[in-house]
């Protein structure tokens, strides 16, 4: 729900005419796409970080294309796509880095009981798969 509201706000703010910005909106463009990249990594998973980055770049390009159609001449800029892609890249890399860090910390902090249960289950599998048919020595 929060993600849907954020994307709706991002799309609506992309069409607000900002008079007198004098080039200061590059910070907004970069910062606005950091959560987009992080959300898409959470949605796709950290192994598909490249898809999250690609969708973020496509979203930035789509917003600029829509601004070209519906906003006054000169409002859309290719530099905004680059800045949004940088922001999305920061979001993707931070979300993927946090996911890797959490996974590693979970692996190193396994309780002894859970580790013993896991070892018992793997020993059962190993003994079941290594058992051979008994030899018939009655001949």
Task: Furnish the topology, listing elements before pairings.
Blueprint: H1 2-13, H2 26-32, H3 34-44, H4 49-70, H5 78-108, H6 112-130
Helix content: over 70%
Note the run of SSEs as H and E.
HHHHHH
Please count the helical segments: 6
CA-to-CA gap between the ends?
A: 74 Å
Domain VanZ-like: 30-93
Transmembrane segments: 24-42, 49-69, 81-101
InterPro entries: VanZ-like
Protein name: VanZ-like domain-containing protein
Short description:
The chain is mostly helical. The protein has helices spanning 2-13, 26-32, 34-44, 49-70, 78-108, 112-130. The chain has a domain at 26-109.
Question: Any overview of this molecule?
Answer:
Keywords: Membrane, Transmembrane, Transmembrane helix. This is VanZ-like domain-containing protein. The chain has 139 residues and is mainly α. The chain has a domain of 84 residues. It has six helices and no strands. Helix 3 crosses helix 4. The termini are far apart. The model has no long low-confidence stretch (mean pLDDT 77).
